[in-house]
Amino acid sequence: MIQKLILNVVVLSFLFGCGSSFEFTELPIGGNIEAIDKAGNPVSFKSMQEPVLLVFFGYTYCPDFCPNTLAKIKTAIEPLTNEEKTKFKVVFISVDPVRDSPETTTKYVRFYLEQSIGLSFSQSTTNQILKQYAAYVEKTEDGQSFDHSTYIYVLDRNRKTRKLIKSTDSKEVITKSIQLLSGNSVESK
User: Which UniProt key words apply to this protein (predicted)?
Assistant: First the structure.
């Protein structure tokens, strides 16, 4: 089942613009989340004010991808105007709910980016969200680390997934995605 989901994400990424193209197509994965976090607080992407959400999965003990992605997003937003910086939010969803609390994940991502939030849910809710996003996560043999998807899911103001950004894409892809989607100039396809 997991292999089929991974294959679907790879095929969708290829077909719907994971590269440097700026075509935005509504993808059949991801989207809004309505759930209760581990602290008992309701979470809904639709209640967030920003027109663009950059969603990705990780964990605070991650040795490489997560800090590198947050650093890349931080450099990607440097050329944005102050107003453009209010048009997006980074949403970091923990794949390690045993060790990561909502407070820990938010503190972790805000170390890099003020306009971010960290989320941690129960294991069953996390599994449902991973399935909804067709995200891959597997605990490594040491039991302390996770192999996980490295996509940034770009959601529009209607909380539809409009683009998948690969970890190998340039920071300019992130910058341009925020600018284009937050400007209302992109219509759904």
Answer: Copper, Disulfide bond, Metal-binding
